[in-house]
Amino acid sequence: MASSPSVSAARSASVGYRRHHAFRLIVLVILLAVLALLIVQPLGWIVFNSFHDDDTGQWTLRNYVQIFASTSRWVPLFNSLLLATAVAVISTLLGVPLAWLVARTDMPMRGFIHLLTMAAFVTPSFIGALGWILLAAPNSGWLNVGWRALSGADWPLLNIYSMIGTIFVCSIFTVPYTFTLVSSALEEMPVELEDAATTLGSGVVKTMFSVTIPLVMPAVLVGFILSFIQGMTLFGVPAFLLTPSGTLVVTTKLAEFYQLFPPALYMSAAYCMPLIAITGMLFYARRRILGRRQFTTVGGKGRAGRKIRLKGWRLPALAFALIVPITAVVLPYIAIVLVSLSRAWGLGPIPSNLTLHWYRWAIFENAETQRAIVNSLLYAGIAASFCMIIGILVAYIVERKLLRGAGLIAALVTIPIIIPGIVLSVGFFSAYTRQPLNLYGTATIIIAAFVATFLPIAYSQAGSILKGISPDLERAARSVGATEARTFASITAPLMRGGLVAGWLLVFIPIMRELSVAIFLVSPRTNVMTTLIYNYKDGGNYEAVCAASALLLFATLIVVLLARFVTEGAAYRRRNAASLGAAP
Amino acid sequence: MSDIDIRQLSKSYGAYQALQSIDLHIPDGALLALLGPSGCGKSTTLQLLAGFDTPSGGEIRAGGELISSPQRVVPPERRGISLVFQNYAVWPHKTVAENVAFGLQLRKLARAELEARLSRALEAVRLTPLRDRYPFELSGGQQQRVALARALAVEPRILLLDEPLSNLDAHLREEMRFEIRRVHDELGITTVYVTHDQGEALVTADEVAVMKGGIVQQLGSPEDIFERPSNAFVASFIGSNNEIPGRHEAPGQLSVADTLLHAQDRSGLSGPGRKAVLCIRPSRVRLGEAGGATNNLNGVVHRSAYLGEYRDVLVEIAPNTTLRAFVSPHLRPQPGEPVLVHLPPEHCQIFAAPDDAPAS
User: Which Gene3D superfamilies match (chain B) (predicted)?
Assistant: First the structure.
């Protein structure tokens, strides 16, 4: 370039200018088209449908009026609110003290309790519900059988098929959210803040109420909101535990609209709206609270090993802390594994009843489970990859401010976070089971729905990885002659690699255990593990259901261990890289 | 190689005007320093030169070719302009040699040619022995040299340096100043050097543009801007300076308290009675001797500090008006002592009072 005449330099610059902009334009158009298909189209159909009459197909507001017109419509709404409130209250009451005990005290077995609480995190809650059916179904549940044998009573001790049972199962699987949020707030809080109060003469209890609790309050509130949303949007647990007794919540009522013949598509669309409105409002509240939360992290230093001494309260504290690990992980896992190893679970766990038959059946003999295992891994793998690609692209555009309206694209990919899975399922069903894009029964529609659901996670993962890479590293490449695409491939992508694998796994795992998004979209050919387990459970073959569940849990566990391994490797590499051009 | 022509370049972010219509011409092969405090617009200018940002107005030409205007920005990779960053921006996943060779690989050179240019670039910054190290195995100064070699290896027509030495320790910084000048003299690449350190600017540059508030305050040789600053800001920003507020009486005359002082007039003020400042370097102030017929003041020593090579003396010449003088270290003025102050008229300059100066 040094010796080239300025005419040719000018021409090459001009070609570069045009090529550069053409490339950007093509990428942007493709991205926007994909997002329109994944998000705008399905959600648009829900809104459109909600204003149409199922019988006549005319524009109408009747659907909305009808939500409140009959008891069968508004009772599920009321039940959902009841369930969500109870779940939020209980998981806060369980999760916050649990976080404090693990993070701040000398309670024994803290590491073990932390580990099991995390195990509850990765367990699909509908599989937990399944475990609890085995334990506490009124007639056949093992705990009730044991109770009757011991006490001679003829009534069951526990009935899991009830609102209280549902609240209980939803709560224990929601505690990990509160626990994680509050314990990280406690760990980030500088110990000096508490010390400062103590040096001024404040006692342990006084310090806790005047310093510790106010500082973790935002985390507690956010935990409460997330728990509430969980209670509103969970589908599997109420479907397993409430539907048998005829009690419906919003999500299961939506499923009922679908099982009508013909499906009440338009009515169900309107019925989604209160749910979206509530989750949307709560996410907005969460954002506001998190926006102000920064003050808790000021000056966060490595905490000294000093722990509050519980003295005589150590064992009572431990007993409390074991509630969630035992009820959410130990008991259901034991029940599921034992049943999966039984010829007939009614006979109880005795040696003559043990068999590997159901695993042989699930893995080698039954084409349905074989296909579902392959489908689950394949769909989750493909969907997680697409999720990450879109997430990275959007995060790159937003973080590097490549576009004026980048904030809007970011908002668009974040929208699915307020859309409950079952609603998104409704949207995809409405949008893509008609001409010109009839995808009913194909893998594409399921993968697309998975991608849409988990885009927000992928985007926020990609964003936090990119924040750690200084834009100067990319600019340096541009200034020595690399195009935007080449810079991305040679500099940004290799620097992101460690974080990308971890981010991919963080999307892959929830897709593996996702039930509600897939539920209306699968066909016998495209069943995944979760939907197959759901269908088998309806058939009542618990041994087969448990074997399939154990396989799903096992597969998830392997992937989680892999994730830990990779994440730690990435963290190590990033530490090395952080001493260099990491962003300020 | 090529010259750079910046015309009426402006850049605003919303209501904030980062650059207010600057004009600069950098001749082929020259080294221009953009000097100024943070927020003066120097980094914005560099970003625009590199092509990472779009100007709000005006244009930039390199070698006669339009490379930046509000309508059209040639992308950075097509400009033949290399940039060295303040934080080095050395790629942590590539070795020294891979960092430097990256730009050459993009040019699809023959293997031998690539190897030759790589060696030459590494040699120029004396990094040949470290070519297979990874960046985290290098010191800050070595990383900075990798960044420089990487920018030079592609033989750019223009080299931009963005505060390249500000993350280095003082000793290394001084050494690298001369290193940068040496490399520039060897290769003769048109260079723009952004810094807030006047020492770096004076040592390395052929010409210095002093900036403040998005405006070029003065463009001139290092000697020009030190000896003949165009306003009080430039005078105070470059080197130590005394700014004595007073009243403009007549061309070349200014009164401080009740004393009339003679000086070079750069204020452009005409009528008498306007506020003005008199600037003089502390090193030019004379103490204890009446050096001439005019510009003699009676002062009181306020503070005296021994600094080895000279003595820094603070003298009160009028109520609330003090003045620093750097004098020979073996003079020993004591605080409280009356002292005769002489301000040689040829070293005194009158400027219009800065707008933001508090009323005196």
Answer: 2.40.50.100, P-loop containing nucleotide triphosphate hydrolases
